[in-house]
């Protein structure tokens, strides 16, 4: 039997000289297991380090051997093509500490990129620190949220970030202050050839009851306005200046438009969702969602003269 891509790649990387358990590796791992869309072909090698040392060793080895590296977070904003991702896919879910490192500075919070947004919100709420209430409507990991400056009407990451730490693909460390991060609407200047490993945040004192009330209001608003029970990645397109992508798509008559198992949600037109297979619903494919994205963009271009910009990130190869 011929070796798989993952096996061959593991042989190329050789011994990383790490303690047992420091690095979880999976060969030919289906990316459908790691995205909220439940789509995507296999990653040649899926890697989850437990700490910065393991991550640096892996990055250094990949850089030295010319092995491609892709960084993924919680998969809530990621569409992987059906052919999967070549090289090593790195996920930081096991690097997820949230702490207040300085008793003399109780509003400073340090968080590792692999922490979920829910975990971070839970900690700061218990510490009665405000500024992160918007995370009640943001799924995924902190690292991914920092890169895209995730947020809701209650705020964005840019409001609380003071520093961001990252590692270059060669394993060297970078530290950027807020200004150097270049945060903007659903984006930043954090380079794609680096992996965000953590951030320093500055919050402010706020009563727990007030925080919980804002978070509950946000979650209820989302519950009423957004689809449930279907695989999705939230908003597919960024809002154009002064308008809403969902309104424009609905005005183009696209609600309910389907390609395979992929549908423009009848509940919220900016959510392109993936239905479960059934008697009348085929097995979902990333190619179908990509085709639906193209259809929506073209129809909106024709009817409204607007060029919709993707909020979701696309990775991997077609079959």
Topology:
Elements: H1 5-13, E1 23-30, E2 42-49, H2 52-65, E3 69-72, E4 78-80, E5 85-91, E6 98-99, E7 108-112, H3 117-126, E8 129-130, H4 142-147, E9 151-152, E10 155-156, E11 161-168, E12 173-177, H5 178-181, E13 194-202, E14 204-205, H6 208-225, H7 245-251, E15 258-259, E16 262-264, E17 272-274, H8 286-304, E18 313-315
Parallel strand pairs: 2-5, 3-5, 4-18
Antiparallel strand pairs: 1-2, 6-7, 7-13, 8-14, 9-10, 11-12, 11-13, 15-16, 16-17
What would you say about this model in short?
The chain is an alpha+beta fold and 319 residues long. The protein is built from 8 helices and 18 strands. The strands form 6 sheets. It has a 5-stranded antiparallel beta sheet. A 4-stranded mixed beta sheet has the order 1-2-5-3. A 3-stranded antiparallel beta sheet has the order 15-16-17.
Query: Main sheet, how many strands, which sense, barrel?
Result: 5 strands, antiparallel
Q: How many strand elements?
A: 18
Shape: globular
Helix content: 25-40%
Amino- and carboxy-terminal Cα gap? 22 Å
Which residues sit in consecutive blocks of at least 5 with pLDDT less than 50?
none
Q: Cα-atom Rg, whole angstroms?
A: 20 Å
- Write the H/E string, N to C: HEEHEEEEEHEHEEEEHEEHHEEEHE
Beta strand %: 15-25%
- The structural class is alpha+beta
